[in-house]
Design brief:
The protein has no helices and eleven strands. It is an all-beta fold. Strands 2, 4, 5, 6, 9, 10 and 11 form a seven-stranded mixed β-sheet that branches.
């Protein structure tokens, strides 16, 4: 089993920044790829960013490329996944979820956190 707990969401003005965190424990999370997803009001959940188990490879949705940065810290028993969000826009408003991929497949994730709300005011 893997437990994921997100934090760091909140209300921010357009152009502002937030840093989301996800604490991942259980199994050997440090050996799995992880990702961030989001679901805006009335929208489907969408991919935001992904990072390989080592942190050496990252992928971003076009909508956040150049503004968001995904990173991870595998050094501790609890793995920490981060999403640094800069130049935030109202369309970034969503519940953000972290997830773990056991298979490594780009579109396959097996564990999800409960989400953290990000609201960007115009």
């Amino acid at each position: 089993q893997v437990q994921l707990v997100e934090s760091g969401g909140g209300l921010v003005q357009t152009g502002g920044s937030l840093r989301l965190s996800c604490a991942a424990s259980g199994r050997t999370v440090s050996t799995y790829a992880m990702g961030w997803f989001r679901q805006g009001p009335g929208k489907e959940r969408e991919f935001v960013a992904r990072i390989s188990w080592s942190g050496g490879n990252t992928y971003y949705a076009d909508s956040v490329k150049g503004r968001f940065t995904i990173s991870r810290d595998n050094a501790k028993n609890t793995v920490y996944l981060y999403l640094q969000m800069n130049s935030l826009k109202p369309e970034d408003t969503a519940v953000y979820y972290c997830a773990v991929s056991l298979s490594g497949a780009l579109n396959e994730y097996h564990y999800w956190g409960q989400g953290t709300q990000v609201t960007v005011a115009s």
